[in-house]
Design a protein that fits this description.
Elements: H1 2-13, E1 19-26, E2 29-40, E3 45-46, E4 53-54, H2 59-73, H3 100-104, H4 117-120, H5 128-138, H6 153-167, H7 171-180, E5 191-193, E6 210-211, E7 216-217, H8 225-229, E8 239-241, H9 243-258, H10 268-275, E9 305-310, E10 314-319, E11 324-330, H11 342-357
Antiparallel strand pairs: 1-2, 1-11, 2-3, 4-8, 5-8, 6-7, 9-10, 10-11
Helix pairs in contact: 1-11, 2-6, 2-7, 9-10
């Protein structure tokens, strides 16, 4: 793993990101786990393997999708179920007949992103969920459902509302109680939503951006503006976590995929359903699969791989055939989101990892 270590150190020198944590596991064992650089370039606080990161869009697979999986397993929700059957406000709209499955694989027809936070900022916090629901109801469709794939934050905002409606609980409480805690993941420093009423220990967190909108350096508070206006808890963003906690969750999913886990949080058939690439897409249900052109996981992950990227500089990839997990957490948006060097770095580091693991026979 010398080449992996060298490449990570070079990335710090080249200012791909100020700091990072890289965890590599194979066959249920961690084979590499190191921290690099700084979690805060202003205070010169060093990154550690326990640093907590804003996971951004990893919220989609690791919180919202997990919640949907559990509800499907408990038969409280169906993948073919329509939106209007769960959220009555969507009845008699062009979105009412969209299936839960379509939201999960980003074929709902909804736009990728909207700056809802401007409108939500004028609404009292206690009324914002209802207002977001109203904005989503009124949102124009770009395409008919299932006609085109377009990665969409809005689709997962809807799924977050679905989870909360079906369970009668906040998304954060549901995944904490039903997913993370049974796996022994700490709900304070493991995987959690940093709600705006929490009082984080700043030193535990990797700093993200100097927000021009909020006029502060973000530490221990969600980076995504729409999630921030929802109190830090939303279906598309808001999850925070450490690398080892991600590993516990991902290794549990991989074991469930093979039906070999002692806890078996999810049934094997259900995991296979969610991990299967959907026809005509490069998406599984709630997860990404390697794209045909310039995949972020590089050239050596098998076609049977799943993963996801987060805007703040987070990512994970699991090669289901080779039982390899690679977790790369960085603060690439610190101090500005304009640094996009990670786009070229991601495939390079994953190629180097796989070549190191498989003796250049990848």
């Amino acid at each position: 793993m010398k080449q992996v270590d060298n490449l990570m150190r070079q990335a710090i020198s080249d200012k791909v990101f100020p700091g990072a944590v890289l965890l590599i596991a194979r066959n249920d064992s961690i084979v590499f786990f190191e921290a690099y650089g700084y979690s805060n370039i202003f205070s010169r606080r060093k990154m550690t393997i326990d640093t907590i990161f804003d996971l951004a869009s990893l919220t989609k697979p690791l919180a919202t999708t997990m919640a949907i999986m559990m509800l499907v397993q408990k038969r409280k929700l169906g993948l073919e179920q329509t939106l209007e059957s769960i959220l009555p406000c969507f009845k008699k709209t062009d979105k009412g007949q969209i299936k839960i499955k379509s939201f999960l694989c980003h074929s709902s027809g909804l736009p990728a992103y909207r700056e809802y936070y401007y409108k939500l900022s004028n609404i009292p916090p206690g009324e914002r969920r209802k207002r977001l629901e109203s904005l989503l109801v009124k949102e124009s469709m770009l395409y008919p459902a299932e006609k085109k794939v377009l990665y969409s934050d809005l689709g997962f905002m809807v799924l977050g509302l679905v989870v909360e409606t079906v369970t009668g609980r906040g998304l954060d409480h549901y995944v904490g109680d039903e997913i993370y805690r049974p796996l022994g993941i700490d709900s304070d420093k493991g995987l959690f939503f940093a709600g705006l009423d929490s009082k984080p220990t700043i030193e535990d967190f990797a700093a993200t951006e100097i927000s021009s909108w909020r006029n502060i350096l973000l530490e221990g508070v969600v980076h995504d503006e729409n999630a921030y206006m929802m109190g830090g808890i939303a279906g598309h963003a808001g999850l925070f976590g450490s690398a080892v906690s991600l590993y516990i969750l991902l290794s549990s999913l991989l074991s469930d995929f093979y039906g070999s886990h002692t806890i078996n949080l999810f049934g094997k058939d259900l995991v296979h359903t969610f991990f299967k690439e959907q026809k005509g897409t490069d998406k599984a249900l709630g997860f990404e699969t390697p794209s045909l052109v310039n995949p972020s996981c590089g050239n050596y992950f098998s076609k049977r791989s799943i993963g996801h990227l987060g805007f703040t500089g987070s990512s994970f990839w699991i090669d289901l055939e080779r039982r390899v997990i690679v977790i790369l957490l960085t603060n690439r948006v610190h101090p500005t989101r304009d640094n996009i060097k990670i786009k070229d770095f991601r495939p390079e580091i994953h190629n180097t990892v796989m070549l190191s693991l498989f003796k250049r026979n990848a």
